[in-house]
Specification:
By secondary structure, the protein is an alpha/beta fold. The protein is built from eleven helices and 14 strands. It folds into two domains: about 60 residues, Phospho-2-dehydro-3-deoxyheptonate aldolase, domain 1 (Alpha-Beta Plaits, 2-Layer Sandwich); about 250 residues, Aldolase class I (TIM Barrel).
Length: about 350
């Protein structure tokens, strides 16, 4: 349930509503927009019915939220959310968020070389995996904390924000010390304990869609994070599992406008994992921007044939630069910037 407040509602009136809700064990979340302020309530519907919200001072309207995801919904926040990852790096605005880097952190020299190239081309966030969830337990699993140290050092030297995957609730504090943004990978999209933990960490979260998840399930996972007080969530469509075998996954372009109709959260796409083939990354990136995506996550490697993971879907730096030139033209056509 959402309460829309009158423009002249006082802070005392807002606190009074919050206190009444808290007495019933309900959580209140306030969203202050340019045109209106709303309070979203989290808790059992029967308890919500116990509060005659319509008669409270300062209340203009009470709106029931039909979607199970309340804080994520457009009803709660009609305007698009902006997620600030670092000073000058924002997801959800007119400027597209470009995340780029190798699948796995392999060493400082290689990562710094890539960071410098992708930054010049227009990327503002450096990606790289320190903990790698792999299908086979015998595959490379990442450098762990040493990889995190490398990521932070390179990010600082290159002047870029950083994002890396956190896989275990016990590692949230560790990753938070080194990275500017958590990534919740596709396999952990419904790891609810992990979602709650990053929700309490107050650091931006990149939430990837699970390979077999519906849009509703994806948004419900985001709701877990927001319900803990962390509203800095960026959604990432990275392809779903279908009967098609031509590509690694099927990147669901439909999901971009569909989610933006239902949610205020920024949505980006990952055409690298979405296709699994470097030759398809650029055309799908163009399609995603044209469909309204707020940004891209692209894997880049200087020697894909030698990459310890996901070399087949990684772009060479020069290919990334060419892709960015294409993206600028598409962005201009849809009133966006790079």
């Amino acid at each position: 349930m959402i309460v829309v407040l009158k423009k002249e509602a006082t802070e005392a009136e807002i606190r009074h509503i919050e206190q009444k809700a808290a007495a019933l064990g309900l959580k209140s979340h306030i969203s202050r927009g340019e045109e209106r302020t709303v309070i979203g309530f989290i808790g059992p519907e029967d308890k919500l019915q116990m509060i005659p919200l319509e008669i409270f001072p300062g209340v203009e309207q009470v709106i029931p939220v039909l979607a199970p995801y309340r804080l994520v919904s457009r009803e709660f926040r009609p305007q698009d959310s902006l997620v600030r990852i670092k000073e000058g790096v924002v997801a959800g605005g007119k400027k597209l968020l470009i995340i780029a880097g190798p699948c796995s952190i392999e060493g400082p020299e290689m990562l710094l070389s890539i960071a410098r190239r992708v930054k010049v081309a227009g990327a503002t966030v450096l990606r790289g995996g320190a903990f790698k969830p792999r299908t086979s337990p015998y595959d490379f699993q990442g450098l762990g904390e040493e990889g995190l140290r490398i990521l932070k050092s390179v990010g600082d030297e290159a002047g870029m924000a950083t994002v890396t995957e956190v896989m275990d609730p016990r590692d949230v504090a560790l990753v938070a010390r080194y990275a500017d943004m958590f990534q919740i990978g596709a396999r952990n999209m419904q790891n609810f304990t992990l979602l709650k933990e990053v929700g309490q960490a107050r650091k931006p979260v990149l939430l990837k869609r699970g390979p077999c998840a519906t849009v509703k399930e994806w948004l419900m996972s985001a709701e877990y994070i927001l319900s803990q007080g962390n509203f800095d969530v960026v959604l990432c469509e990275r392809g779903i599992r279908t009967f098609e075998t031509e590509t690694r996954n099927t990147l669901d372009i439909n999901a971009v406008p569909a989610v933006k109709m239902r949610s205020h959260l920024p949505v980006i796409i990952d055409p690298s994992h979405g296709t699994g083939r470097w030759g398809l990354v650029t055309p799908i990136a163009r399609a995603g921007v044209a469909a309204g995506a707020d940004g891209l996550a692209i894997e880049v490697h200087e020697a894909p044939e030698e990459a310890v993971s996901d070399g087949a879907q990684s772009l060479l730096p020069r290919k990334f630069e060419a892709m960015m030139a294409d993206i600028r033209r598409v962005a201009l056509a849809v009133n966006r910037e790079v």
